[in-house]
Amino acid sequence: MIRVYILIFIIAAVFWFKVFLQKSSDERKPYIKKSVLYAIALSFLLLAIIGRLSWIVAALSVLMAFVLRFLPLALRYAPQLQRLWSMFRGRGNFTAGNSGNAHHAGVMTAEEAYKILGVSISATRQEIIEAHRKLMLKNHPDRGGSSYLAAQINRAKEILLKNK
């Protein structure tokens, strides 16, 4: 039976390659993508027909359970991950040409402190303390947060409370 499958695979591959060579260079990439999707679908169908699909279903179930288990954790750090990604890509608040250059030199402006804590300029002393407390609960290093972010949050609180 395996010989039949190999023969069918070889015939399909020759046919696919013949059609592939007839396509222009612009049409080849979509053709490859479509062909890969068809190949995956046919593989699943074949495995289901011959009764060998159970290990794939088990692996997908484990993967889904893993993703669902760690999705809340990943989403918890989503804002920090987005900030780090934007800094890495050079589009963050602290890129060249922005007022964030002072941040890299160790100096934080009051404007940056307001942005870090997420409070308005007219925030009261109590609002600043509450915003600091909420951010530290999410980002404390003892709870898996970043020590860098915790230091920035603490520095922002100090700057804003000194001004109030």
From TrEMBL:
The J domain, residue ranges: 112-164
Bilayer topology: Single-pass membrane protein
InterPro entries associated with the record: DnaJ_domain, J_dom_sf
Alphabetically ordered keywords of this record: Chaperone, Membrane, Transmembrane, Transmembrane helix
Gene Ontology terms: cellular component: membrane
Location(s), subcellular: Membrane
Pfam families cross-referenced by the UniProt entry: DnaJ
Principal location listed in the UniProt entry: membrane
Claim: Cytoplasm is one of the keywords in the record: no
UniProt keyword annotation of Ribonucleoprotein present: no
Spans through the membrane: 6-23, 35-51, 57-78
SUPFAM superfamilies hit by this protein: Chaperone J-domain (SSF46565)
PANTHER family: GEO10507P1-RELATED, PTHR12763
Similarity field: Belongs to the TIM14 family.
Protein name stated in the entry: J domain-containing protein
